[in-house]
Write a structure and sequence with these properties.
This protein is α/β, with parallel strands linked by helices. It has a domain at 5-135 and 167-193 and 256-269: NAD(P)-binding Rossmann-like Domain (Rossmann fold), CATH 3.40.50.720. The chain is 43% helix and 15% strand. It is built from 12 helices and 11 strands. The protein has helices spanning 13-25, 53-60, 76-90, 110-123, 140-143, 146-151, 168-179, 200-211, 222-231, 236-250, 260-265, 272-278, and strands at 5-7, 29-33, 45-47, 65-68, 94-98, 128-134, 153-156, 162-163, 188-192, 198-199, 216-219. The strands form 3 sheets. A 7-stranded parallel beta sheet has the order 3-2-1-4-5-6-9, sandwiched between helices. 42% of the residues are buried.
Length: 284
């Protein structure tokens, strides 16, 4: 049976790593973009926009397995409905959804409830499904915090809370293992974490060691973090969700670990210290 894979969110943190991993494995896949790209790096592309349902069925036609990665926007649930309805019409057989650790439609935490509501839509879609629920990404320190780290101080509203951060390269390997053999993972949910939970102070100690200079962590009040995000023009619903994530860390709810990375990839999760050494040039 054929297994052509369509990767959505292919230009993002997880998606770009997944595209590289699928290419390395020689998988049959294409990436979906919301608009035509001038260059594709040799990766086949289709055009489809989650916000324009009329574009999605054509984009998904001819594919068997869908990697569903949705943007964090106020209309996220509606985009999920658009994607799943189009996938059904297009003949997609299996949906592999990139969710988040702690997702639960009955959670009192709004961001966890949002992710859980979408997971439930996937599970009730009538298609085979697999849920991947990654923890916080180590690469956030490269993609969002590099400027602060280069300056010598990381500010965050995490208190002393620890997180079992996961390297995106491990997420990509785990996702590729599922996507290239989806039937073996039908109806399964995997929580993808690192092997250890570290506070922001401990993370910056590892970064300091990799750089050979000190990088400090400074805790900021939750209200200050919320005000800073609002001043950046981030939609209020998204500010609320990001503030929820700060609460999750600060309360110690992001410290749980799972062995699912090892189960899917065959190796232990990359350590934060190894990540810091590999990415040290991003902070010099």
């Amino acid at each position: 049976m054929s297994n052509r894979i369509l990767v959505t969110g292919a230009s993002g943190t997880i998606g770009s790593a997944l595209v590289a991993e699928l290419s390395r494995r020689g998988a049959s896949f294409a990436a979906m973009r919301s608009r035509p790209a001038a260059t594709t790096g040799g990766v086949p592309m289709v055009v489809g926009d989650f916000a324009r349902p009329d574009t999605l069925e054509a984009a998904m036609g001819g594919f068997d397995t869908l990697f569903l990665l949705l943007p964090l926007v106020p209309e996220k649930v509606q985009l999920a409905r658009n994607a799943l309805e189009a996938a059904r019409r297009a003949g997609i057989r299996h949906v592999v959804r990139s969710s988040a650790a702690g997702a639960d439609p009955d959670s009192p935490v709004p961001i966890a409830r949002l992710q859980g509501e979408i997971d439930r839509l996937v599970m009730n879609s009538g298609m085979a499904w697999t849920l991947l629920r990654p923890a916080f990404f180590m690469q956030n320190h490269v993609n969002f915090n590099a400027g602060q780290i280069r300056s010598g101080t990381l500010h965050a509203a995490h208190g002393d809370g620890a997180t079992a951060m996961v390297d995106v390269r491990d997420i990509a390997e785990a996702a590729a293992a599922v996507l290239t053999n989806p039937a073996a993972h039908a109806g399964r949910t995997y929580t993808l974490t690192g092997a250890e939970a570290l506070s922001d102070a401990a993370q910056m100690a590892a970064v300091s060691q990799a750089l050979g200079r000190e990088v400090r962590y400074v805790n900021v009040p939750p209200e200050a973090a919320r005000a800073a995000m609002t001043s950046m023009g981030i939609p209020l619903a998204v500010v609320d969700w990001l503030a929820n994530l700060n609460d999750v860390v600060r309360n110690g709810w992001a410290a749980g670990t799972s062995d699912d990375v090892r189960q899917l990839t065959g190796h232990a999760p990359r350590s934060f210290a190894a990540f810091a050494r590999d990415y040290a040039d991003a902070w010099r």
